[in-house]
Design brief:
Blueprint (H helix, E strand, L loop, with lengths): L2 H20 L1 H20 L1 H10 L7 H30 L3 H31 L7 H6 L1 H11 L12
Helix pairs in contact: 1-5, 2-4, 2-5, 3-4
Length: 162
């Protein structure tokens, strides 16, 4: 095991532990809150803009302020729904299942993060090498990660993993 294995293992363990600690419902609600918050802020910030201008608030910062208010409102709303669902899961005694599924979801998030890291690494190494070849060949996890991502041909068609 070399330093590359440790760099790969850290996010996997972190996201897995975080998922186990929070549970699937909280993990999904935090992801949904972020995605829906960004979407709402991009497409529905006009409601906050109209509200602010109706209350005589005018400045050069009104657009960013309306964006931020919309984002925060949606994130808080989705977060509250997630907390409510999490409490419901605990009431019907599915807490351990929720936590185990949260750990699996955490591993999935780590996998997505590792995919983009390996994808970016492989792309940049075409121009200048970042990791010596002997470190990659002696790594236990790097070959596993790249072999797994070879199974995604539609995404990795431009790159041949070595």
């Amino acid at each position: 095991m070399n330093y590359l294995d440790i760099v790969i293992l850290i996010p996997v363990l972190y996201f897995g532990f975080n998922g186990l600690r929070k549970g699937l419902i909280k993990e999904l609600s935090s992801l949904a809150a972020l995605v829906l918050g960004i979407y709402a802020a991009l497409y529905w910030n006009s409601f906050a803009y109209q509200y602010l201008t109706a209350h005589q608030i005018t400045s050069k910062y009104i657009m960013p302020l309306s964006f931020a208010l919309t984002f925060i409102a949606v994130v808080v709303f989705v977060h509250l729904i997630g907390k409510l669902l999490d409490k419901l899961i605990k009431v019907i005694a599915l807490g351990m299942v929720n936590r185990l599924l949260g750990m699996l979801f955490g591993f999935l998030k780590a996998g997505v993060l590792l995919f983009f890291a390996v994808y970016l690494l492989h792309y940049t190494e075409q121009f200048f090498p970042l990791i010596p070849a002997d470190v990659k060949s002696n790594s236990l996890l790097f070959s596993v990660v790249t072999d797994l991502f070879k199974q995604l041909p539609s995404i990795t068609t431009d790159f041949s993993f070595r």
